[in-house]
Design a protein that fits this description.
It is built from seven helices and seven strands; from the N terminus they run ββββαββααααβαα. With 206 residues, it is an alpha+beta fold. The protein folds into two domains: 40 residues, no CATH class; 161 residues. Strand 1 and strand 2 form a beta hairpin.
Length: 206
């Protein structure tokens, strides 16, 4: 492996190592505690940027179209995610509504928009304004996106409702499934990799 003049600080023990250029299949680990420092992932921009764009499209579909339609006793009802939040508020569960709104709409959207804002300039070998602040914000937001928890709750509710009503899956349900898969892939990208892309002299972004 060819050495490049950059340091990596181990997240496990704070040991400082010199960054190395990894070949396909290689992983760098801390010599002191064995924590993974870096791994070869190819060109992350080619892999992550299309996934972020696809996730934003699925996010729009998931929030603009009904999740499910329910028919019971001749009455028909359907709702979107935002409609469910409004219904929870009207029923006196404002705290639950705020939690659902934040964890399934606001935080995931912020994560995707920050990723898009960071990746587009980096793809042109430019460092975006507010780079350090946004990378830290992305790290702070990661534990708060809970689209998969919401999806699991919806699926459980659908199973229970099928015994008492006719339940028809709406376009948003499939979009939520796709969004969950895409978010899992996108958020597996470690924020520390942004520092490598932005400050590696071989990228021309320093």
């Amino acid at each position: 492996m060819q050495l490049v003049p950059h340091a990596i600080v181990c997240e496990g023990c704070d040991a400082v190592h010199q960054k190395t250029t990894l070949a396909c299949g290689e992983t760098a680990r801390c010599v002191r505690c064995g924590t993974e420092l870096d791994r070869y992932t190819g060109n992350p921009l080619q892999r992550i940027l299309p996934l972020v764009v696809a996730a934003l499209v699925m996010f729009a579909v998931a929030n603009l179209f009904p999740i499910v339609s329910i028919a019971i006793g001749g009455q028909h009802s359907e709702t979107t995610l935002f409609g469910a939040v409004v219904a929870l508020t009207d029923e006196g569960m404002a705290e639950v509504a705020a939690l659902v709104l934040a964890t399934t709409l606001l935080f995931p959207l912020l994560q995707l928009l920050i990723l898009l804002y960071l990746l587009l300039p980096l793809s042109r070998q430019r460092r975006p304004v507010g780079f350090a602040l946004l990378v830290r914000a992305l790290q702070s937001l990661q534990p708060w996106g809970m689209v998969e928890v919401f999806l699991l709750g919806v699926l459980v509710a659908i199973v229970k409702l099928t015994s008492a009503a006719e339940v028809i899956a709406g376009p948003a349900l499939g979009a939520f499934v796709a969004l969950t898969v895409l978010l899992t892939a996108v958020l597996s990208f470690q924020p520390r990799n942004f520092w490598h892309m932005a400050f590696d002299p071989q990228d021309g972004t320093a």
